[in-house]
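[INFO] parsing input record for Zinc transport system permease protein
[DEBUG] input buffer:
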Amino acid sequence: MDQLLDPLFRIPLYTGLVASLLLPLLGALLHAREEWLAALGVAHVTAAAQLAGAALGLPLAASGALGAVVAVIAKQFVTQQGNLGYALLMFAGWAALYLVAANSTLGESLAHAMSEGQIFLVGKDQLIMLLAAGIPFLIALPWLAHRLLRARFFPGFEQANGLPAWRWHLSFDLIAAVLLAFGTASLGLMASFALVVLPAWSVFVWVHSWRWALAAAAVVGVCSYLGAFVLSLHYDQPFAPVQVAVLLAMAVLLRGGHALVHR
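[DEBUG] output buffer:
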């Protein structure tokens, strides 16, 4: 517990806590829309954009926001292909990420940082970016969730009532891309994706209401982050693999526990 109280790691701790709260909530919505794989493609595209921005000397927030816009536009073109389209988006982002890394001065080290998740080196900029994206997301979450879930389970409602559904679908896509961009810059690519996918997957079988699903996913995300933070510091390990391992273990235990209880 001493690591959690060390002033040297206070900003990284707060940054990760914010990300580990926001990303599972985002993941619950992506699961409900059956678009969780899209998160991996979007994360790769935004990471590539941030790396290219760093190579050109652009601020992280600007390159992350630009990458989010590019990812949303690309997603519109591949959505009709379903999971195959999201896989194509991931391949394109992955290729761009490592080609930029191979052809820029700081690219390789930044690419490794995005992959491995250098949470202990993040500063106030990442925390401010996550708060700037996360607070509007939390405020809009009830409004967005109501409309997105209605569109998922009653797809004909919007068309029958002449509702401008494109507004909330596009808003959600943009918010999701921005959160993934800033989450990737703070926690690393795979750690962010794991926080999007695994908490919601692990708790959906236990809960019977949307509010409890959101609350439980957030608790799993935050607890896994705190455990990974302490373990990686104590044993001097790269953060992202530890985060993914801890989260995966928690998810398997939760799903396995549910299977045993309901045999």
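[INFO] Residues 224 and 247 are 5 Å apart (CA to CA).
[INFO] shutting down worker
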